[in-house]
Amino acid sequence: MHVLILGGTTEARQLAGLLHGTPGLTLTSSLAGRVASPRLPPGEVRVGGFGGVDGMTAWLREHAVDVLIDATHPFAGTISFNAADAATTAHVPLLALRRPGWVPVEGDVWHGTGSLAEAAELLPALGQRVFLTTGRMGLSAFAHLDALWFLVRSVDVPEPPCPARMEVLLDRGPFTLDGERELLRRHHIDVVVTKDSGGVATAPKLTAAREAGIPVLVIRRPPTPQGIPVAADPESAAHWITRRHAS
Length: 247
Ligand code: NAP
What we know:
The protein has helices at 10-19, 52-62, 77-90, 116-122, 177-186, 204-212, 234-246, and strands spanning 2-6, 26-31, 44-47, 67-70, 94-97, 110-113, 129-132, 149-154, 166-170, 191-195, 216-219, 230-231. A six-stranded parallel β-sheet has the order 3-2-1-4-5-12, with helices on both faces. A six-stranded parallel β-sheet has the order 6-11-10-7-8-9. By secondary structure, the protein is of the alpha/beta class.
């Protein structure tokens, strides 16, 4: 059985770890190639786009893929729709591994927005010193906000256009609550911007913001293809795959 995992997430790596070494199962993980030094999952890894739906369909056929797992990030909208179309055309069963979104709890001051552009519009009314954790792509949406100061945290160095008043912190999760508290305090942060990525690795910033009474602009998830089975965690996805493998 050949399993192709579309990855780029912690959960995709964890799933590869759970499946690696299963007798009779061949595993390939696919990465987009956006990050300069990605954390690699165990097993075979291919890097780079497939060339749209047609390219992915051809890849599934040429490599005799039996099961496709879309374990990409909730904000990677294009690849998820491509996977749905390619799986249908190539008659390959598809499972989405998608971590649940975050849910506000008492004390959270969250403002939901539909996009980075909308977040940029709302931002000046909420604070002056921004902790921006939406990744290095899409910083251009905030580039015109000259009156605000930004602490930008990303895995790789952002490319212009970027906000004029900005400090870049190169880092990747998981992050600790103590570390996030200290960041907010040291940089006098008064507003946080995040995607609704979900998961535990990057959630401590939300707790730290709640404790400090700091508002959080939460960018809502883009739509995902409907009618596809979804696993909320790597263990459930591994179970789904091994059940098919056994039958
Ligand atoms: P996207 O907009 O959905 O995808 C754009 C194109 O990148 C796709 O059409 C595909 O190219 C290629 N691609 C994306 N994921 C791929 C994968 N796993 N393997 C091979 N090709 C892939 O995706 P994105 O938002 O740029 O994200 C790129 C990758 O970073 C994803 O794998 C995602 O899991 C990871 N990531 C994204 C975010 C985020 O906030 N967007 C955060 C953390 C990690 P072709 O059409 O040529 O096949």
